[in-house]
Amino acid sequence: xxxxxxxxxxxxxxxxxxxxxxxxxxxxxxxxxxxxxxxxxxxxxxxxxxxxxxxxxxxxxxxxxxxxxxxxxxxxxxxxxxxxxxxxxxxxxxxxxxxxxxxxxxxxxxxxxxxxxxxxxxxxxxxxxxxxxxxxxxxxxxxxxxxxxxxxxxxxxxxxxxxxxxxxxxxxxxxxxxxxxxxxxxxxxxxxxxxxxxxxxxxxxxxxxxxxxxxxxxxxxxxxxxxxxxxxxxxxxxxxxxxxxxxxxxxxxxxxxxxxxxxxxxxxxxxxxxxxxxxxxxx
Length: 283
Description:
By secondary structure, the protein is α/β, with parallel strands linked by helices.
């Protein structure tokens, strides 16, 4: 696969812009500025035909293209021949060329998805499409201690430059018990951030770690993580009931409400080395 450098932000390379605000607090009001993240339409284009249009942060778009292609089961890494990121007057096109055999298979399934920020299932045309088959993870996964989880989430916080500047973006990261944070990707949409992370890891053989999420855990986040064969999710917020069910079926250890004072294990607790007698939430 050949590809240019990662897509850059339109107008500003840091991905955000200062906006004037009138700030109020009990002490009074004053003119000030607030950094707000860029958000642009990003068109995913295969072989010249638009497949999806998502509102996204305009950084790491090559990773986004690869991750989206993998998690949507459009193609495998070896079937991606080239990626080109081009700025248009009204957004960004990410043009992806697939091998001829794969391009022919994909030609009839473009769903022309147009979704808002964080839209994970927009544009699907049937309930069957929304309920994808469960993909069991094959990786045995790491054996994690409570300190690993607390350290991982603590390390993630200062490694989100876009969020630190704007306080309005999500992050997805991959953490390894021996190597720490391996990769972090940010976006205004939580699904986009995870797609970017999975794209960044596409050619990495490392799977015995955990995906870290700064968002709630919906079913699509479990689907994407399982499709990348990563066996552990750790998130700061709670999961949905369907996400817990899917994590149980796919063999993913789901850790949520992970804060400085503790966390909750919802599924497959064998990968978390807790003291004997500890109680687990059950799916």
